[in-house]
Design goal:
There is one protein chain. This protein starts with a strand and ends with a helix. 43% of the residues are buried. The chain has 2 domains: 3-61, Orthogonal Bundle (DNA polymerase, domain 1); 66-379, TIM Barrel, CATH 3.20.20. It has helices at residues 10-19, 24-35, 50-59, 119-123, 131-149, 171-182, 202-211, 225-231, 240-253, 273-287, 313-325, 346-351, 357-380, and strands spanning 3-4, 60-61, 66-72, 78-83, 89-97, 100-104, 108-110, 125-128, 158-161, 194-198, 215-219, 259-265, 293-299, 329-332. By secondary structure, it is an alpha/beta fold. Bound molecules: S-adenosyl-L-homocysteine and iron/sulfur cluster (SF4). S-adenosyl-L-homocysteine binds at residues 117-119, 162, 166, 197-199, 219, 262, 264, 298, 300-301, 343-344.
Amino acid sequence: MTANLLDFDLDGLAAFCERLGEKRFRATQLFRWIHQKGATDFTQMTDLAKSLREKLSGSAHIQGPKVVSRHDSADGTIKWLFDVGAGDVIETVFIPETDRGTLCISSQAGCAVGCRFCSTGHQGFSRNLTTGEIISQLWFAEHFLRQQLGRDERIISNVVMMGMGEPLQNYSQLVPALKIMLDDHGYGLSRRRVTVSTSGVVPMIDRLAKDCPVALAVSLHAPEDALRDNLVPLNKKYPIAELLEACTRYQSSAPRDFITFEYCMLDGVNDQPEHARQLVSLVQAHGQQGLSCKFNLIPFNPFPASGLKRSDMPQVTAFAKILMDAGIVTTVRKTRGDDIDAACGQLAGDVQDRTGVDQRMAAQRQGMLGGIKVVVAKGMGV
Ligand code: SAH
Ligand code: SF4
């Protein structure tokens, strides 16, 4: 088996070239051919010596993702499904806006965290993606779009690790992929335009701060532990107080940045005024330790197996107002690509039904909703 060069960040490629007896600057040239020009064929790389091109043909290849399908939304959003082998399918979504182009990338096939409101979580975990499988989503989308639009300059300006999977549970493969995104010889994206979204893997938040401090989004979804334990099971391991302390530490390595808290609005579960007030107290307590943050309220994308409902707009607006009146920057995420299910593992979920996790969750749901009812009733003073 020859090496897939998409698996290497620039340091990795330099080490590979050294093993072939080549100097580091050759790796830089090769890296630019791969990521800036989207080349797959060594014979195209005319500024590399013929002898090197021949060595590369014998020992390496550039293998992008295998497209299963493409879905184009009326609003310009594009969703691809990629086959990563053994029946696993992942998804990547491109969201064009007037001032930016955002690509939403997957980090795992499935996810082990098992959040109740997430269709990827309901599919269970299959495997970690390799660095090559992570970066090839950007490599493919960027060069596909350039070709389609007949443009030669950068189209994707922002990357969010918000597709399938928990990126910080695939840390060793994630970090080289992030480095390729940031590398001036790769995609040259600014640190603030690459966002890692996490359900809260505390030790890895600390490592990311040291290794590659990109923008951080934390999926909070609840203001207190009992409710968060139910919605995001990882909370039992890393409860809210520890998570917010990790966020404060993260910020000390990137002081001018905000942490974004994502909050999926679930009707009657976590969307009551009392929950918003609890969030305000939480942020104010941690704010004193120097945490600056903003909230992104996400309208829930319903799917039948979840047994949950999207909060209605007046509820979301009222919730946002409580946060904003307390001086917390709050946005409500626009739903994009609704007509192609371009959110959160939905289409890939239709393609495959893994391991009976759905049935297990359905069995637990009764208990979960019971638990939530108690919490809400307490909070509301009912
Ligand atoms: N595992 C990471 C990143 C992938 S999920 C994380 O949890 O942060 C990306 C975002 O989509 C998270 O904020 C997640 O909570 C949210 N999400 C998952 N399922 C959703 C759904 N059905 N509707 C709306 N948002 C959802
Ligand atoms: Fe995994 Fe994120 Fe989905 Fe939770 S929300 S199951 S962490 S992908």
